[in-house]
């Protein structure tokens, strides 16, 4: 993971620390290190990515190349450790269910019977007559009733 932190247009405050494995490492602020702490960079000997701290400025364009190189190293790290595909699959799975939920809500709001049923269940739930779980189950049952009768 790469953390990017913005400090404003004047670049008056620059991060000076990098947290690594619970220890605090002080950045060496010299022109030779170009603002990055090499102890926070993945050394290739482990499957754990250690995010670098890279000083950047959009105003002076300082460190942007270093930032891009760190992003590319992170991607390569994910590919090398076979985490890239795994994370993409998990991301796809997450988005499938997120889209399904949104589509169900949209279809429910488009159907006048379900929209009315949802309003009724919401009122009963807010009045304390139903729990959120029971209201959701009744709404789901209403969806399946409509599907079964088509």
Largest sheet: 2 strands, antiparallel
Calculate Rg over CA atoms.
25 Å
- How many domains comprise the coordinates? 2
Report, as a whole number of angstroms, the end-to-end distance: 49 Å
Poorly predicted ranges (pLDDT <50, ≥5 residues)?
5-42
What is the 3D shape? Answer: elongated
The proportion of strand residues reads 5-15%
Order of helices and strands: EEHHHH
The class by helix and strand makeup works out as: mainly alpha
Counting DSSP E segments of at least 2 residues, the number of strands comes to: 2
What's the average pLDDT? 77
SS summary, helix count: 4
Task: Outline the secondary-structure elements.
Layout (H helix, E strand, L loop, with lengths): L16 E4 L2 E4 L37 H17 L2 H28 L1 H15 L5 H17 L2
Antiparallel strand pairs: 1-2
Helix pairs in contact: 3-4
Brief characterization of the structure:
The protein is mainly alpha-helical and 150 residues long. It has helices at 64-80, 83-110, 112-126, 132-148; strands spanning 17-20, 23-26.
Task: Characterise the protein shown here.
By secondary structure, the chain is mainly alpha-helical. It folds into 2 domains: 17-81, no CATH class; 100-148, no CATH class. 51% of the residues lie in helices and 5% in strands. The chain has 4 helices and 2 strands, in the order ββαααα. The chain has helices at 64-80, 83-110, 112-126, 132-148, and strands at 17-20, 23-26. A two-stranded antiparallel ribbon has the order 1-2. Strand 1 (17-20) and strand 2 form a beta hairpin. Helix 3 (112-126) runs antiparallel to helix 4. The longest helix is centred in the middle third of the chain and has 28 residues, at 83-110. The protein is elongated, with a radius of gyration of 25 Å. The model is unreliable at 5-42 (pLDDT under 50).
